[in-house]
């Protein structure tokens, strides 16, 4: 198969769909790889490194989109990218369609087959292609909170870990999955007081074991949420209902009862965010204030640490990308992980939570692929 890797064009997005090492694996398996010039600049991989790995380096994204049978990216296609997609093409990348009707319509109109990293699902309900970036974003969320809490940034001026004799910050993490666990690990490691809210009790048990009592866990009810959020210095939004728009768990009214200068980091913003007042921001201008609360809502947090993130992402995507390259749509039909990753195929929405969120008719992947 001919694989194409355009340079990422989202604001301050420095990751790359394939590292030179991943290119080498595709080439070793008999595929050809087209890479846009400078696609790897953000991870210090120059065109020479890609050529050495066996890629053909081309001058423009247009050449990549014209010739490739499968496009491998990181972020959801931007408008100038989705207009270049076509019916016989496979797109393999993060999509986050539920909060994005324009992108969904664009992909439907292109006729392409779009497989979303974030809904590729293992037999236990785990999300193996989301997990590595959730690990990164969870860890970064505490750095973001620490920065925004500084007085010079508009925050309360509290140091996460405090110092001997002065109490540390209270960090509340809503959602104890991958993002939440890694946020809790960083925050407790820095000495903050950490509480994790989740509505899945087995997960709370696992966290209790994992942290040996160094964090508190609470079952997520409206009452628990209010008590924790009102007393928090920083709140991390880390919930997920796979593929669906995030539930709005903290309202604008609730912000009025929070501590002035407290910070919210809405990691779930890529699925629409779990705070009523969240709107996507970029690394160029990451924060804004509502009701005296600093909001950090960057939808591509791992893009800030592209070296770590690109390698972590490629480790996870490589076997699936190779399977698609080997067998095309047959791999998507046969492999249950990839079947659950299929979000769009030839003008149909094939992921139920996306269809439900946006009001489209859901067509099961098996039916869409058989048509
Ligand atoms: N902004 C960014 O750059 C990035 C954002 N993310 C996003 O972070 C979010 C979380 O991802 P993961 O941790 O991987 O998901 P996950 O599936 O591992 O964890 C989600 C957790 O939320 C819990 N949950 C669901 N509804 C809840 C509710 N109403 N109240 C309390 N808990 C609830 C679930 O029980 C689960 O434990 C996703 O939206 C993901 O796309 C991930 C990576 C980067
Ligand atoms: C998961 C995601 O949205 C990201 O890594 O940017
Ligand atoms: Mg997005």
TrEMBL record:
Q: Which UniProt keywords apply?
A: NAD, Nucleotide-binding, Oxidoreductase
Question: What is this protein called in UniProt?
Answer: Alanine dehydrogenase
**Biological process per Gene Ontology, one example term:** L-alanine catabolic process
- Which segments constitute the Alanine dehydrogenase/pyridine nucleotide transhydrogenase NAD(H)-binding domain? 149-297
The Alanine dehydrogenase/pyridine nucleotide transhydrogenase N-terminal domain, residue ranges: 4-137
Q: Which organism is it from?
A: Microvirga aerophila
Q: Which residues form the active site?
A: 96 (proton donor/acceptor), 270 (proton donor/acceptor)
**Which InterPro entries does the record associate with it?**
Ala_DH (IPR008141), Ala_DH/PNT_CS2 (IPR008143), AlaDH/PNT_N (IPR007886), AlaDH/PNT_NAD(H)-bd (IPR007698), NAD(P)-bd_dom_sf (IPR036291)
Q: Do the record's keywords include Lipid metabolism? A: no
Q: Give the main EC class.
A: oxidoreductase
| SUPFAM superfamilies, sorted | Formate/glycerate dehydrogenase catalytic domain-like, NAD(P)-binding Rossmann-fold domains
Enzyme Commission number(s) from the entry: 1.4.1.1
Q: PROSITE patterns, from UniProt?
A: ALADH_PNT_2
